[in-house]
């Protein structure tokens, strides 16, 4: 394998360093050729918790004849079914692929350790929930990563599928393993394990990949896997890590990342962007699970992208430009989603839903349409803005007003200028007070701890803020039983953001700062009992930070910690910080790097970042300038309403902002029930 | 700012009719729990556009009474629920629409208009016993019969059952009214079948209790999970060896209504 010609570490010749490679599992030796493995699985189900999550049969799920399809996808959200099933990305691709007559897509999720153990003992392979086919039988194994904490679950799934966990060990029998989702904007930590990564919107990319594989198979699969990867690398937005070499400097920094002679890959891979979301109204028939899941509702993405410019927010940076769905398309998607699912709740999703140019009319028309139907409409957490309270009031006209969520993110006005989430303290109090006045009983406020330049004082201002919120809320509502919940977690710097160079705050400092805040809130006799305090301790954030800004060497750690037993790292009852740290000691033993090097170290402008060859459209110079602006506590505006400030996305990718108002209306519709 | 009035919540809508429904839980969907069924059923009501009566309050709930659900992992041909309608609806159509709105495997078998409660009583009181069928793959008829003989030789077989308040002792022998071992010729030769009629109580004996009892008295440990199906629920016959259709009194009532004015049809 031509990984690189590194000067300090030789990953290519680095056999699994910490003991012998395990022998190939017998799971890999069996081929099922698309046959169901349900009979084998069924015998195990009486012994596991919540067996219904493994049986499939969801309303709107699709089972196609194996032989009818030229290209077969197994799609995975690498977390438990209850989290993975509602994932919009997987549901969209599932429909887009299954609409083609020459392709099929089935879904698979992470199995809990109780079933994993039984599957290993009984030689039952990783299976799809649709037709219970073996994942190893498919042409493509596509994984959607919203978070880096799913990486170890990918290794479990590969291993249970009988697919070699290292890309270099796979032959023509193995599916092509493709990563997508937001975390795939820096796929370098999983470069050892995936054959390819898709950057950006997946709808068209998945179809192009399907075409590519169909064509290659029709030709008789010339030159096997290698040729297929060469062809895939030619598709816009597809990155094939094995076609790039990484060279390192003696001090551990990256010297350069360059295409090698293996493929004819471009120097930089640019993300895919779907323009005109009205043409892509997916999911049309959302999946309705039998098992209980985290979101039991029909969700409609009302726009994609965000130009608010919050500097910590990777999602906002990598999904530019803003592309709105029109009111009538949103209305149709909601009506069809409700009709096909029977859900009684609709979520209007986006990164900042109140920013849709026609959200006012949209909310009013939807509220009119569903008045008296026991259908509830909701917006996810919103920016601090009085208009949001008006919207939330409209959507809950005749329903329950329980809780409303705002995300000021930073405790002090100063730190809010640093992160470009500008809202004054007065505005915040006024907004929240309006919510209590309108009958909302509980307000949730989201914050982060460990933001660049942050001090204890910035965070302690949160206690001050919460106190004033309760005081003026009691006055406005005339009740004493109102509550405010402060929810706070550690900030993790992410690639492709202005904070990609920033030092992450160490977990000890994060925990100490959060403890001070907790005490400040609890010790307040007057309002302490009305304020809930929820926090996430700093340690999982360090592992997330390590994986977010990791490089190919981080893959050694992921493999090590997985072999040491890491599973379900997003779940506190399964996550072990100590296991990660001791695995890091082993994996990085011969390298001039450690966990701090990846996390709490600030980078300089000249340093080559592991993801610099992956193009989110954002101009690197613009990101650096914005980082300097952050340190100077300067804000930038939203380019939807002010002139372009040259972040680079529209120019470089040939895209444009697509917003209204269009003046379009909900189309008339006969609503049943 | 003056205190604003909160939303009044929805008014109580009294049901104009009650419909009693028999459903089955089949195949892989036997692994759905009762809560899973409830969610699926409430969504199916919405998809099928059933005019449901709702409870009052801030979070109105459709009027549905669930009775006596079979445990997770156990299949059933005979589960019963009762729903309250806010407007009349043809029962046969309603059954068909609900069935097509439910995932295959959770199947609506029958639906009848509830009879006059003064005449025919409520549904729950008619569910006096269950017929359970246990299929033992890879267990011979002789093995099972000998285990059953040991079991029947005792008057009381106490088994442990996990409850919310810890492990409780529970008699799995007493409530069994009929116990029969057979062999299904359609199955492999090594596949014995046990059929029992169990009288309901508080709490009712469950299939797991019977299996635990057989393990306890006869060391019967099936090599492959036993497949259990509830075949029927209803009123226990006089000899307590069979159960009758619990919806029959409602059917009889509605027959009578339609026949009242015309003839003196038999009511047997």
Blueprint (SSEs and pairs):
The complex is a heterodimer of chains A (673) and B (268).
Chain A: H1 38-42, E1 71-80, H2 81-84, H3 88-98, E2 103-110, H4 113-122, E3 140-144, H5 151-161, E4 176-180, E5 196-198, H6 203-218, H7 224-233, E6 238-239, E7 244-248, E8 254-259, E9 269-270, E10 298-301, E11 303-304, H8 314-318, E12 323-324, H9 327-341, E13 345-349, H10 359-370, E14 376-378, H11 386-395, E15 403-409, H12 413-418, H13 425-437, E16 442-449, H14 456-477, E17 483-490, H15 507-522, E18 531-535, H16 538-548, H17 554-563, H18 577-587, H19 595-599, E19 614-615, H20 620-631, H21 649-653
Parallel strand pairs in A: 1-2, 1-3, 3-4, 4-5, 9-19, 10-13, 13-14, 15-16, 16-17, 17-18
Antiparallel strand pairs in A: 5-6, 7-8, 11-12
Chain B: E1 17-25, H1 34-47, E2 64-67, E3 75-85, H2 91-101, E4 106-113, H3 117-120, E5 129-137, H4 141-152, E6 158-163, E7 166-171, E8 176-183, E9 191-199, H5 207-218, E10 227-236, E11 243-244, H6 248-259
Parallel strand pairs in B: 3-10
Antiparallel strand pairs in B: 1-3, 1-4, 2-3, 5-9, 5-10, 6-7, 8-9, 10-11
Helix pairs in contact in B: 4-5
Structural overview:
The complex is a heterodimer of chains A (673) and B (268). Chain A is an alpha/beta fold and 673 residues long. In chain A, 33% of the residues lie in helices and 14% in strands. Chain A is built from 21 helices and 19 strands. In chain A, helix 5 packs across helix 17 and helix 15 runs antiparallel to helix 16. The relative contact order of chain A is 0.11. Chain B has 268 residues and is an alpha+beta fold. Chain B has 2 domains: 17-120 and 246-258, Pseudouridine synthase I, catalytic domain, N-terminal subdomain (Alpha-Beta Plaits, 2-Layer Sandwich); 128-244, Alpha-Beta Plaits (2-Layer Sandwich). Chain B is 24% helix and 31% strand. Chain B is built from 6 helices and 11 strands. In chain B, the strands form 2 sheets. In chain B, strands 1, 2, 3, 4, 5, 8, 9, 10 and 11 form a 9-stranded mixed sheet that branches. Chain B has a two-stranded antiparallel ribbon with strand order 6-7. The longest helix of chain B has 14 residues, at 34-47. Chain B is elongated. Chain B starts with 16 loop residues before the first strand and ends in a 9-residue tail after the last helix. Residues 1-9 and 256-268 of chain B have low confidence and may be disordered. Chains A and B meet through helix 9 and helix 14 of A and helix 1 of B.
């Amino acid at each position: 394998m031509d990984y690189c010609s590194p000067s300090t570490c030789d990953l290519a010749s680095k056999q699994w360093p910490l003991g012998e490679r395990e022998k190939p599992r017998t799971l890999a030796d069996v081929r099922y050729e698309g046959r169901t493995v349900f009979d084998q699985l069924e015998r195990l189900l009486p012994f596991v918790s919540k067996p219904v999550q493994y049986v499939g049969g969801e309303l709107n799920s699709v089972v196609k004849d194996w032989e009818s399809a030229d290209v077969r996808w197994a799609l995975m959200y690498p977390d438990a079914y209850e989290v993975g099933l509602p994932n919009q990305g997987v549901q969209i691709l599932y429909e887009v692929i299954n609409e083609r007559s020459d392709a099929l897509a089935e879904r698979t999720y992470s199995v809990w350790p109780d079933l994993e153990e039984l599957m290993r003992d009984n030689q039952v392979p990783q299976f799809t929930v649709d037709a219970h086919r073996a994942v190893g039988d498919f042409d493509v194994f596509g994984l959607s990563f919203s978070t880096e904490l799913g990486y170890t679950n990918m290794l479990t799934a590969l291993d249970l599928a009988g697919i070699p966990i290292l890309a270099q060990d796979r032959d023509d029998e193995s599916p092509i393993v493709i990563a997508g989702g937001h975390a795939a904007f820096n796929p370098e930590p999983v470069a050892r394990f995936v054959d390819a990564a898709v950057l950006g919107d997946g709808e068209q990319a998945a179809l192009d990949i399907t075409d590519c594989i169909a064509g290659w198979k029709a030709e008789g699969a010339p030159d096997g896997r290698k040729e297929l990867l060469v062809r895939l690398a030619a598709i816009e937005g597809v990155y094939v890590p094995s076609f790039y070499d990484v060279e390192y400097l003696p001090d551990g920094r990256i010297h350069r990342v360059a295409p090698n002679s293996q493929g004819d890959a471009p120097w930089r891979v640019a993300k895919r962007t779907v323009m005109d979301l009205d043409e892509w109204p997916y999911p049309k028939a959302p999946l309705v699970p039998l098992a209980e899941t985290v979101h039991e509702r029909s969700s409609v993405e009302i726009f994609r992208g965000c130009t608010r410019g919050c500097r910590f927010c990777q999602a906002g940076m990598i999904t530019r430009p803003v592309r709105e769905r029109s009111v009538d398309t949103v209305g149709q998607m909601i009506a069809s989603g409700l009709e096909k699912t029977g859900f009684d709740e609709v979520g209007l999703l986006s990164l900042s839903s109140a920013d849709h140019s026609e959200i006012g009319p949209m909310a009013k028309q939807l509220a009119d349409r569903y008045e008296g139907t026991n259908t509830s409409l909701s917006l996810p957490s919103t920016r601090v803005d009085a208009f949001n309270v008006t919207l939330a009031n409209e959507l809950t006209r005749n329903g329950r007003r329980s809780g409303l969520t705002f995300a000021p993110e930073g405790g002090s006005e100063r730190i809010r200028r640093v992160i470009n989430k500008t809202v004054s303290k007065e505005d915040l109090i006024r907004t929240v007070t309006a919510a209590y006045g309108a009958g909302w009983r509980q307000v949730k406020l989201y914050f982060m701890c460990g933001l660049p330049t942050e001090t204890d004082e910035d965070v302690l201002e949160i206690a001050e803020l919460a106190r004033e919120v309760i005081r003026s809320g009691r006055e406005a509502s005339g009740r004493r039983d109102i509550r405010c919940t402060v929810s706070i977690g550690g900030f993790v710097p992410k690639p492709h953001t202005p904070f990609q160079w920033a030092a992450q705050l160490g977990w000890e400092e994060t925990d100490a700062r959060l403890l001070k805040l907790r005490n400040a809130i609890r010790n307040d006799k007057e309002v302490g009992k009305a304020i809930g305090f929820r926090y996430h301790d700093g340690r999982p954030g360090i592992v997330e930070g390590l994986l977010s800004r990791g490089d190919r060497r981080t893959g050694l750690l992921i493999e090590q910690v997985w072999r040491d037993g890491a599973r379900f790292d997003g779940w506190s009852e399964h996550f072990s910080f100590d296991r990660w740290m001791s695995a890091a000691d082993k994996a990085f033993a011969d390298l001039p790097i450690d966990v701090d090097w990846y996390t709490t170290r600030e980078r300089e402008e000249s340093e080559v970042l592991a993801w610099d060859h992956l193009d989110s459209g954002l101009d690197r110079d613009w990101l650096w300038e914005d980082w300097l602006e952050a340190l100077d506590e300067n804000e930038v505006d939203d380019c939807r309403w002010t002139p372009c400030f040259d972040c680079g996305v529209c120019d470089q990718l040939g895209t444009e902002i697509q917003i209204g108002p269009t003046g379009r209306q909900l189309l008339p519709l006969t609503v049943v029930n | 700012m003056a205190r604003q009035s909160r939303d009044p919540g929805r008014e109580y809508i009294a049901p104009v009719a009650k419909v009693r429904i028999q459903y089955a839980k089949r195949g892989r969907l036997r692994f759905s729990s009762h809560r899973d069924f409830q969610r699926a059923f409430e969504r199916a009501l919405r998809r099928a556009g059933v005019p449901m009566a709702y409870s009052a309050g801030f979070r109105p709930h459709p009027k549905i009474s669930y009775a006596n659900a079979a445990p997770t992992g156990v299949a059933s041909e005979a589960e019963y629920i009762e729903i309250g309608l806010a407007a009349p609806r043809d029962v046969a159509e309603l059954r068909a629409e609900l069935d097509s709105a439910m995932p295959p495997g959770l199947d609506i078998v029958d639906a009848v208009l509830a009879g006059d409660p003064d005449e025919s009583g409520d549904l729950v009181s008619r569910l006096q016993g269950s017929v359970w069928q246990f299929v033992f793959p890879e267990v011979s008829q002789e093995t099972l019969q000998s285990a059953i003989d040991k079991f029947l030789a005792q008057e009381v077989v106490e088994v442990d059952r996990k409850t919310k308040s810890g492990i409780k002792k529970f008699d799995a022998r007493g409530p069994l009214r009929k116990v029969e071992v057979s062999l299904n010729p359609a199955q492999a030769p090594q596949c014995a079948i046990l059929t029992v009629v169990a009288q309901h109580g508080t709490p009712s004996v469950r299939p797991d209790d019977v299996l635990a009892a057989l393990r306890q008295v006869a060391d019967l440990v099936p090599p492959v999970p036993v497949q259990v199906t509830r075949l029927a629920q209803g009123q226990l016959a006089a000899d307590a060896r069979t159960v009758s259709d619990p919806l029959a009194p409602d059917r009889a009532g509605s027959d009578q209504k339609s026949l009242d004015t015309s003839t003196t049809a038999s009511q047997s």
